[in-house]
Amino acid sequence: MMDGEVLAILLLIAHGVLVILAAVVVSANRRPSAAIAWLLAVVFLPVLALVAFLLVGRTTLPPRRRADQAFVTARMRERVPSLAAVGHRDEWPDWLPGIVAMTERLGALPMVGGNTVDLIEDYIGSFDAMIAEIDRAQRFVHVEFYILVLDDTTRPFFDALARAAERGVDVRVLSDHLAGFMNPGRKATMRFLAAHRIHWHGMLPLRPLRGQWQRPDLRNHRKLVVVDGLVGFTGSQNLVDASYNKRKNLSRGLHWLELMVRIEGPAVRELDAVFVTDWFSESRELLPIDETPVTLGAAADGRRFDVQVLPSGPSFDAENNLKLFAALLHKAERRISITSPYFVPEESIMLALATAAARGVEVELFASEVGDQALVYHAQRSYYEALLRSGVRVYLYRSPTVLHSKHFSIDDDVAIIGSSNMDIRSFSLNMEVSVLVHGREAVDRLRAVEDHYRAQSSELSLTEWRARPVLGRIADNAARLTSALQ
Questions:
Q1: Gyration radius of the chain over CA positions
Q2: Tens-place pLDDT, residues 277-297
Q3: pTM here?
Q4: Which residues contact 199 (CB under 8 A, 6 or more apart)?
Q5: Is the bond preceding residue 62 a cis peptide, omega within 30 degrees?
Q6: How many CB atoms lie within 10 A of CB 350?
Q7: Domain 63-91+112-305 matches domain 320-483 at the CATH topology level
Q8: Distance from the CA of 482 to the CA of which of 43, 83, 238, 294 falls in 20 to 30 A?
Q9: H or E stretch at 116
Q10: Regarding the domain delimited by 320-483, which CATH topology (the fold level of the hierarchy) does it fall under?
């Protein structure tokens, strides 16, 4: 036998051993679809797959960060006021108490009543509303954004932070460490914060030499602002210009459409609890946790809503948002309306949507006609045919607007608004925050937003979609395969 043949046999044996080991390691605590995708990668591209798995194969945060989450979660559970502190329990659907109890077990934050909820669809108007509250701050301002950039659009917001700091208000800012390097303006942003003595930390930093390392694409995707524990904002919008200041976006005329929610009332302290957890994990400073009992009094009227905050992400043992979303979809009796710019769903979500449509529930999905991320854009397109066949109506918001809002409504009185996409990344890899709202008037307002989307969108038909070019189908299906590599 020649040396070349011996080498070939040895390589073949090594490849076989690698595949067997991968089958054992990869399949542990991983969805079958993800495990199969990894195994296919190992079979056809063993070296690249091995390197990729070492970099992004682990879907949990390091033990220290998980311990931080567990520590603060335990503190949250010590606070007693819970279901008794809601304003309209007699109006809840029969199934909602179980959903609320599950959500509290997952995130340790109770449903509380007596809240005002205002939706802000205008991009600049959202910043203006936050600035107005920051200028009224007396004790503290907590700011947390996945992307936080000083530019011409956001400068008034930064100036408001500076004014608050000059008044003696404690201003604390968190932004994702990696996202800061991926977007223009990082140095100017850091200089501004330092010059005005605004406390800042980068979330989930990647500094291997300092022992700060985790899977690079485990990111903190949350967006929230809390002022004095009295007023809070959260939703889909990052602190950056609507074009994200990127040349390719500017050349294509792309601009982002968002939805933020302004909350006033007891739920704001629950939103602040999410910030407290993230601040502790990055700074080692545990801020005070508001343990004041919730008193509703005359606030429990038809314009005040029951609200529950749910944090999720790889610092938790469970996929909190996935469990909540899937449970809600199965409870729908009349209507489901979903808005998700990156719709790459987990199997249980697809099954829930198909089952709902088969039960006669009206189901609709709003997504963007244009995409800013090629792989995600093509991956989500691969799901449209199955959705259309099951009876889901799909609307694509017309270019050049990127519909970046993240929310959905169930029947007439339950809605979710937050930072979480309806995709595998948001369920498993990103730290997100979602707000569960009960109240017919609040959902009516969200329906008006959905009506605006529908008026600005084109509805897909199954015939039209099946007639798309073959190359597009190939790109969609290939991208769908890569989305399972997690």
A1: 23
A2: 999 999 999 999 888 877 776
A3: 0.90
A4: 170, 171, 172, 173, 283
A5: no
A6: 15
A7: yes
A8: 238
A9: strand 112-120
A10: Endonuclease; Chain A (3.30.870)
